Amino acid sequence: MNYSPIVLFTYNRPWHTKKTIESLQKNELASESILYIYSDAPKNEQAVEEVKKVREYIRTVKGFKDIKIIEREKNYGLAKSIIDGVTTTIKKYGRIIVLEDDLITSPYFLNFMNEALEFYKDKKKVWHISGWNYPINDNGLGDVFLWRVMNCWGWATWNDRWSFYEKNVDKIINEFSSKDIKRFNLDGAEKFWDQIIANKKKKINTWAIFWYAIIFKNNGLCLNPTKTLVQNIGLDGSGVNCQKTDIFKSELSMKKEFDFNIDLSENRVAVERIKEFYFSQKRTFFIRAINKFSRIIIGRNLIK
Predict the structure, then answer these.
(1) Phi/psi class of residue 154: alpha, beta or left (left: φ > 0; alpha: ψ in -120 to 50)?
(2) What gap in Å lies between CA 141 and CA 134, rounded to an integer?
(3) Which of 38, 191, 206, 218 is deepest in the core (most CB within 10 A)?
(4) Nearest to 209 by CA among 173, 163, 245, 235
(5) pLDDT reading at 299 higher than 60
(6) 207 contacts: CB under 8 Å, gap ≥ 6
(7) What range defines the domain where residue 217 resides?
């Protein structure tokens, strides 16, 4: 098998970058894989020193079949850097495995990704492979499942699917009906569509939500492992467009072999469990808000 190239996007987080690469080096297929590292340039003076530290470190990295470092001479920003880097690399190799600089992977992450890329390469219904999964009850779900939503914490795809990628806010908004938006929002469990609107209003500048939208409009499906092969260590407030949270954390799987023989349709059981995960977070937030409000009222009464 020709193993897919790995593309890693870095910026100004040397500690996170080191942890990400160290976990990749422990992968069984690391020594047989080409690693591309894209290092974005600092966008301001405050980022100069940390970007320098990242670049000094990545120049010392070993343990892969080959390492190619692309140091941006000007700041691209995360969205543009990923779109450009993925497009350039995937055109050359036909398939790609993508990571950002805050993702810890299982030693069998590359096994999973490469096997899935090979198994589903001619199954055009499948557009995207994720290495991460929600902390849900996995009883009866098998090794993997398919569903509509795209996750980008360690992912892979093929050139014939990625070639459809387009970051066109107005086109997406015009193409989506109210029924589409409801399904896109996982039947009301989450507010993914808000990210499209926030991009339209230039409140954020992201790429992943458009990849999800394109997969969705083409009736594509995304593959998830039932047990996560990726942990995000960037939810500590250090990342671009990330807030501090630990609700998405679950134990890293050490599973080595996977059964990909499943129906090429959305797994309704998995979808319902993920929807319940989102609804439970909303209930938890509501209860915390009520409790906080109650404490404020009681405190005020005590003061009086």
Answers:
(1) left
(2) 13
(3) 38
(4) 173
(5) no
(6) 78, 79, 80, 82, 83, 167
(7) 6-167+207-266
